[in-house]
Recover the amino acids of this structure.
């Protein structure tokens, strides 16, 4: 694999616990520059915990996290953002009492000033946000709020974008639209680490995938391999095994 | 912070009233006025922690007390003129705020509240048991020197009152600037959603500790004024019940200047006016708290959530 050469991001033997409960039991993940990598798993598998640990919203108990060769295992969360990792958290977490544009401006908090080019780029990616820039974010629909959450995460000009379940609670047609935009974001040079329950949509989008089950990685490979894997088809894509 | 012309007029009238008040008031009223000024400052400093930072600090009398005791001990034990002790009486509570907040700042809501009550109780026990032999035990410290500045005696109630006005205006100034500053905005956003705030790169822990330090420092300054007003300090002025009152002022009044001034007025001035009802003050305020929370859960004068300042928008 020549991808190994430009590994941008790496997690080694990561362990995370909540009190005495181990949520992540030693996982290793690699992401190359420009890739879209997805972590799949059911509820409670540890997907969100993994992302939060990466962006340092949660502490790890063991293991290392490397970003562009630098150890960021103990770096405080606010520095992670200015280093180039941006996290769009689960459940959107937008500021409902601010307008769409103010939410976006806040996304550039870690920057010296708001880059108009980035703002316009986000509006190009999500024209819906541009139409509603003066509207209070709390009055947006679920899909629009998700667009805003992704847009806000892009405002810090990240090199790597962490997306936590962007499909959550959205109609299939909106999921399609948002994932199409994620592809565009990736093509513009942003590396994407995506956590999803919607395995089908995520595998169609991603280059590679890891499958997480109760805190452990049970499978990994290219999206093609996983889409073809019987185990995945059965467990995540809802296809019955063909009778022999 | 002060935007509309109405508000501007309102604040001007209020400040003018403060300045002219001694001309109309008899000594008793002047003393009540000074009390109002001092407790308003403490209420505003609690607002930085509780209202702006959203941290349930139920031990604010602690910082008020540390400031008062710092000034009293500096004066009584070390013979430092009480006004010269002011920098110390701001720095020490501020440092205490930062050091105490450090290990508990990650606690949320009720957990933080209980921890801060604990700090308040520990402090009270220490001063009541005459730690290091300098706090005077349950009686406190009496007979502090009257304040003098450049040889001018500031012992008169009028001088103390104007000292209070100066400190209140200084606090207004600090709070108005805080609202416009990056720190103030950061506090707003982390109070709304801490996880979202950290995910956009706000140093939530840092700003929360900063709020504790700033609030504690201002409360400490108010503590000096209290020590000056009574020429004495005593433990019961800084007990848990006082902390409850400061907490309630912010909650009932609403996290805003008029709200906190009104809360202080109701809590500390009305009981003085209705002397006969003084023992009923907690009874009345208790009901006021219940009613306010049912009818106006965001406080009587809720904070208006400001728009993002313009400098933030400059591309």
């Amino acid at each position: 694999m020549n991808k190994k050469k430009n590994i941008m991001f790496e997690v080694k033997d990561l362990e995370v616990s909540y009190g005495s409960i181990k949520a992540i039991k030693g996982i290793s993940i690699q992401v190359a520059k420009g890739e879209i990598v997805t972590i799949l798993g059911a509820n409670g598998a540890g997907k969100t915990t993994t992302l939060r640990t990466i962006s340092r919203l949660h502490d790890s108990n063991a293991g290392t996290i490397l970003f562009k060769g630098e150890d960021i295992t103990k770096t405080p969360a606010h520095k992670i953002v200015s280093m180039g990792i941006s996290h769009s958290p689960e459940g959107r977490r937008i500021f409902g009492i601010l307008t769409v544009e103010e939410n976006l401006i806040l996304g550039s908090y870690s920057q010296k000033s708001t880059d108009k080019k980035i703002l316009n780029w986000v509006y190009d990616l999500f024209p819906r946000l541009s139409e509603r820039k003066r509207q209070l974010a709390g009055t947006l629909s679920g899909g629009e709020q998700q667009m805003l959450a992704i847009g806000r995460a892009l405002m810090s000009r990240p090199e790597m974008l962490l997306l936590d379940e962007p499909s959550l609670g959205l109609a299939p047609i909106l999921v399609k639209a948002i994932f199409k935009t994620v592809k565009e974001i990736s093509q513009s040079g942003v590396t994407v680490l995506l956590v999803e329950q919607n395995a089908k949509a995520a595998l169609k989008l991603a280059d590679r995938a890891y499958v997480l089950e109760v805190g452990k990685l049970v499978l990994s490979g290219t999206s093609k391999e996983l889409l073809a894997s019987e185990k995945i088809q059965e467990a995540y894509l809802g296809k019955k095994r063909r009778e022999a | 912070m002060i935007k509309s012309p109405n508000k501007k007029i309102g604040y001007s009238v209020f400040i003018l009233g403060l300045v002219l008040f001694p001309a109309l008031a008899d000594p008793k009223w002047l003393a009540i006025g000074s009390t109002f000024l001092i407790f308003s400052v403490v209420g505003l400093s609690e607002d930085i922690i509780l209202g702006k930072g959203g941290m349930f600090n139920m031990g604010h009398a602690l910082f008020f007390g540390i400031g008062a005791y710092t000034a009293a001990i500096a004066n009584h034990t070390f013979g430092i003129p009480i006004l010269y002790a002011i920098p110390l009486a701001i720095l020490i509570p501020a440092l205490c705020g930062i050091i105490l907040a450090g290990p508990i700042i990650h606690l949320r809501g009720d957990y933080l509240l209980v921890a801060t009550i604990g700090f308040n109780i520990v402090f009270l026990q220490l001063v009541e048991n005459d730690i290091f032999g300098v706090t005077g035990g349950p009686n406190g410290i009496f007979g502090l020197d009257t304040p003098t500045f450049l040889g001018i005696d500031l012992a008169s109630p009028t001088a103390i009152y104007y000292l209070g006005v100066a400190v209140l205006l200084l606090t207004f100034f600090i709070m108005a600037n805080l609202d416009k500053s990056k720190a103030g905005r950061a506090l707003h956003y982390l109070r709304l959603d801490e996880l979202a705030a950290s995910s956009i790169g706000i140093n939530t822990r840092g700003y929360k500790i900063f709020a504790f330090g700033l609030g504690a420092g201002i409360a400490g300054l108010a503590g000096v004024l209290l020590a000056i007003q009574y020429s004495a300090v005593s433990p019961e002025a800084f007990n848990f019940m006082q902390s409850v009152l400061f907490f309630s002022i912010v909650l009932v009044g609403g996290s805003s200047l008029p709200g906190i001034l009104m809360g202080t007025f109701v809590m500390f001035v009305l009981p003085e006016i209705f002397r006969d009802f003084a023992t009923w003050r907690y009874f009345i305020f208790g009901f006021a708290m219940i009613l306010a929370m049912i009818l106006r859960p965001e406080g009587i004068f809720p904070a208006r959530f400001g728009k993002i300042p313009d400098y933030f928008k400059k591309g």
